[in-house]
Amino acid sequence: MPAIPDRLKKQLETPYDKADVIGFIIIYTLVVAIVPYILFHYAPFSIFITYFANVDIVANILSVNFPNYFVKWYSVYNDTLRGYLSFNIISVIALSGIFYFGLVAKGRSNYEKWAIMIIMSIVTWTLPTLGIPFMNHKVEDFLERNDNITSEQYGTYRFFITILISFLFLQFEWVAVGYIERLKL
Fold first, then answer.
1. Each residue of 110-138: pLDDT tens digit?
2. Residue 27 and residue 11: Cα distance in Å, rounded?
3. Looking at the domain assignment, is residue 1 inside a domain?
4. CA-to-CA distance for 130 and 164, rounded, in angstroms?
5. Does any domain span residue 131?
6. Residue from 126, 162, 115 nearest 53 by CA
7. pLDDT confidence bin for 29, thresholds 50/70/90
8. Domain count, the chain
C-alpha cells in the first residue's frame, strides 16, 4: 500500500461531521447514481462504460483533492468499518462496469468475453486503484520539497496534477475499451 500523505492522515483521524455527510451524498447520488444513469441514456456506450467502470477513479480524485468531504468514503488508507465498506462498494460498482461490458459484448464467444473482462479488470481496476494514490503521493512529496512553491500554488498544482494523472488513466482505459470492442480474439 502506498504511504499516506500527512494531510489525508489528519483528515482520516478527525471524527465524522457535516462535511462527511455532504461527501457521502455527493459520491453516492451524483457520482454513483445520477451520472451513470445520464450517460447510459444519452452518451455513446464507450463513454458510459468507461465512466461506469471508473467510478472509483472519480471517487479517488474527489478524496485526494477534497479530503474534508470525501476521504472517509473512498480511500485505500481508511481503516474504519464505514470507510472499508464504502471503498469496497465503490470498487464493486467499478468492477460491475467491467463485467457489464464483458457480458453485453455481442458476437463473442464465452472465452472472448472472459478475456475481455480479465484484460479490463487489470487495465481499469487493478492498476489505478493503488497506482493513482501512489503517483499522487510522489507528486505531493515532490511539491512539498520544492522551496519555490507557495502553499496556494501547492494546492493548485496538486489538484491539476491529480486530474491529469486520473485523466491519463481514463484516456488509456477509454482507448483500451474502444480497442477491445473491435478486437477479435
1. 877 787 788 778 777 777 777 887 888 88
2. 17
3. no
4. 16
5. yes
6. 126
7. very high
8. 1
How far is 8 from 105, CA to CA, in rounded Å? 40
Long-range own/partner contacts, residues 81-86 (CB < 8 A, 24 or more apart)? 82/16, 83/12, 86/24, 86/27
Residue 53 domain boundaries: 6-182
Rounded to the nearest angstrom, the gap between the alpha carbon of residue 101 and the centroid of all alpha carbons in its chain is: 18
User: Residue 49 is placed in which grid cell?
Assistant: 462504460
Q: Tell me which range, 51-55, 87-91, 123-127, is most confidently predicted by mean pLDDT.
A: 87-91
Q: How far apart are CA 165 and CA 109, in angstroms?
A: 35
pTM assigned to the model: 0.81
Residue 150 has pLDDT above 60, yes or no: yes
Written as nine digits, the cell of 27 is 459520491
- 171: Cα separation from own chain's centroid: 13
Residue 55 in contact with residue 32, Cβ under 8 Å? Answer: yes
Q: How far is CA 106 from CA 36, 123, 147, in A?
A: 21, 21, 55
Q: Can you give the length of the chain in residues?
A: 185
Computed from CA positions of residues 92, 94, 100, 105, in that sequence, does the dihedral angle turn out positive or negative? negative
**Percent of residues in the chain assigned helix, strand, coil, to nearest 5:** 80, 0, 20
- The owner of cell 481514463 is 170
Q: How far apart are CA 106 and CA 115, in angstroms?
A: 14
